[in-house]
Structures are given as C-alpha cells and as structure tokens.
Design brief:
The chain is an alpha/beta fold. It contains 12 helices and 8 strands. It has one domain: Aldolase class I (TIM Barrel). The protein is globular, with a radius of gyration of 17 Å.
C-alpha cells in the first residue's frame, strides 16, 4: 500500500469515527498543504516542510515554480516569482525532496505545470521523481486526452497521478478522470484562480457528491480554504481540504524572519484545531 493509500485510509477511518461520535480531540479533517518550493529559497523550504509535518499536515503538496502560472492567483504568482528569482528549478526541487524523504512520514505530491516536466523529459522526470521518493504528481495543465501515456510512466514507477476536477467538468469527463487518476482526486470548489476566500463556494458539497458518484478514490477539495471552520466543513463531505494561498501568505509575511518555521507550524495546528 502506498503512502497516499495509507494516509487516506487512516483519514477515512478517522472521519467515520468522528461522524459516529467516537472521535477524540486529536481527530480532524484531512489537510493537504500547498507551498511553492524555493519561496523564499530552497534552504528555507526544507524547514517549512518539516514544520508542516510537525503541525499535522497529512499530505505535502510541493509546487514547482514556473514563469506563467496561469491558474494561480496573485499570492502564489508572487511566491513563484520569488522562487524563480532565488534560482529554483525542477531538478532542484527533486533534489530537495530526495534529501528530506527519509525524515518525513507524510506523502509528497509534486504540483507542476507541464512545461518544466517536458523540458526535463517526461521519462527522465519520472525516473528522478521515483528516485526522490515522490508519491504523486499533479500536472495542472495536462488534459486528460493526453494524460494516459504520462500516467503510464508514473504508474510503472509506483507514483500516483493526481488529476483535477472542476465544477464545470461534465459527468462523462468525471468518469474518464476517475478512471485515469490514482492516489486521490483533487476537486476544485470554484472557478477562477487560486486564492483564500471568506466562505466556501456554494457548490462545493455538490461537487464532491458528483465525484463520489463515479469514483471510490479519496477526494481532496481545494480553492478558497483558509480557516479551521472551512477545513471542518469540507471534512463533512470530502476526505481532505487543500490549503494553499493562505499558507503561502503566511510564508510571505514571515519572509526571512527567524520564526518562519514556528509561524508555519502554528498556522497548520490552527487549521487542524
């Protein structure tokens, strides 16, 4: 059983216990945390990833910076700019994961646009990801019509292919994505770019219901989540909440502060509270 399978099996057991009234104070909704690798630099990213795990993050999503992050809002765009200015590359991110893998229990999912992977070469990337101990890969702008070959490369190396679903995805495409995806499915709660919001999208629960109807894979719901209340609400329907922009804002605010890791850890503990 892969790390992702083990993690989501544990989360589902916890959620069932909580819903039946048997949860303990330590129980809570699953949490996937997104950061941009290299923000503020790769050396500090190591400490941030360790802090995320100490804080209770269940899955670590590590973003590979690219010059044209079209699906991301201004917070993550600025983080990408800082990471690129610090010299962060896909190869550097893979080296970082390889250095940390033995020290981290949580699954690591690489989040990337297709361009950096194609520049490295898809097969070479898959080999490097396997050697580094990557558990899953999410390529944001890879259409499902072109995903089968890439999925095959990853599956041959026991790496999960994480696929995205949006509120406008048709039922037919939902089924096709469910058949191709592995590890978990990433459901987007709203249209538009990433960014924290005061309230969850009205159609978030319906989005999860539609995915559940076509797949038994775990579901992580993202876009706009930034508070413990959001995480708790998402946990009523999905297996995990994804927090990205709000966490990246904490990192941006702390910057070069000596208490950066402490603030990251405290924020994650707050989300899990």
């Amino acid at each position: 059983m892969s790390r992702l399978e083990q993690t989501f099996a544990r989360l589902r057991e916890t959620n069932l216990s909580r819903r039946s009234g048997g949860a303990t104070k330590a129980d809570g909704s699953g949490l996937v945390t997104y950061i941009t690798a290299g923000d503020p630099d790769l050396a500090r990213t190591e400490g941030i990833l360790r802090a995320l795990e100490r804080g209770g993050a269940d899955v670590l999503e590590v973003g590979v910076p690219w010059s044209d992050p079209l699906a991301d809002g201004p917070v993550i765009q600025r983080a990408t700019e800082r990471a690129l200015a610090a010299g962060t590359t896909l190869a550097g991110v893979l080296d970082l994961v390889e250095r940390l893998r033995a020290d981290l229990r949580a699954p690591i999912v690489l989040f990337s646009y297709a361009n950096p992977i194609l520049r490295m070469g898809a097969e070479q990337f898959a080999d490097r990801a396997r050697a580094a101990g990557v558990d899953g890969v999410l390529v944001l702008d890879l259409p499902i019509e072109e995903a089968a070959e890439f999925r095959g490369l990853l599956a041959a190396r026991e790496i999960d292919t994480i696929l995205l679903l949006s509120p406008t995805t048709t039922d037919d495409r939902l089924r096709r994505v469910a058949a191709l995806g592995s590890g978990f499915l990433y459901a987007i709660s709203r249209l538009g770019v990433t960014g924290a919001r005061e309230a969850l999208a009205e159609g978030a629960e319906e989005m999860v219901r539609r995915v559940r109807a076509v797949s038994s894979l775990p579901i992580a719901l993202g876009f706009g989540i930034s508070t413990p209340e959001h995480v708790r609400e998402v946990g009523r329907w999905a297996d995990a909440a994804v927090v990205g922009s709000a966490l990246v804002s904490v990192i941006a605010d702390a910057g070069a502060s000596p208490d950066l890791n402490t603030r990251v850890e405290e924020y994650v503990r707050w989300l899990k509270s």
